[in-house]
């Protein structure tokens, strides 16, 4: 089977496009390649942004853990100080009571 018209010799292939058609196709191809390159660069930038965000999230997680540990330590110290404060207040109350009793007994003996 021969797809060529019958009057045309075998060596004379039909021209598929003019120079203008080739130039237009070249421009379209160049534009498509430029768009692809831009898209790849945007994707790389997005990947860098995601990596930077992941790094920041990890740093925030480490800071959170450190702060949580510090808070736990502070709570332990606060509870210990509150307990010591209560013990001191009880001892002061007992001392005040003893001093008051001694003073009252001395006043009674002076009268």
Please characterize this protein's 3D structure.
This protein is mostly helical and 111 residues long. The protein has one helix at residues 19-110. Helix content is 83%, strand content 0%.
Principal-axis shape equals: rod-shaped
Beta-strand residue fraction = under 5%
- Unreliable segments of 5+ consecutive residues: 8-15
- The topology string of helices and strands comes to H
**Count of alpha and pi helical runs:** 1
Q: What's the alpha carbon Rg, rounded to whole Å?
A: 46 Å
Estimated helix fraction: over 70%
CA distance, first residue to last residue: 146 Å
Class by alpha and beta content: mainly alpha
Could you tell me the number of beta strands? 0
- How can the largest sheet be summarized? none
Average pLDDT, to the nearest integer? 88
Task: Describe the secondary-structure layout.
Elements: H1 19-110
A few lines on this structure:
This protein is mainly alpha-helical and 111 residues long.
Provide the descriptors you would attach to this structure in a database record.
mainly alpha, 111 residues, 0% strand, single chain, rod-shaped
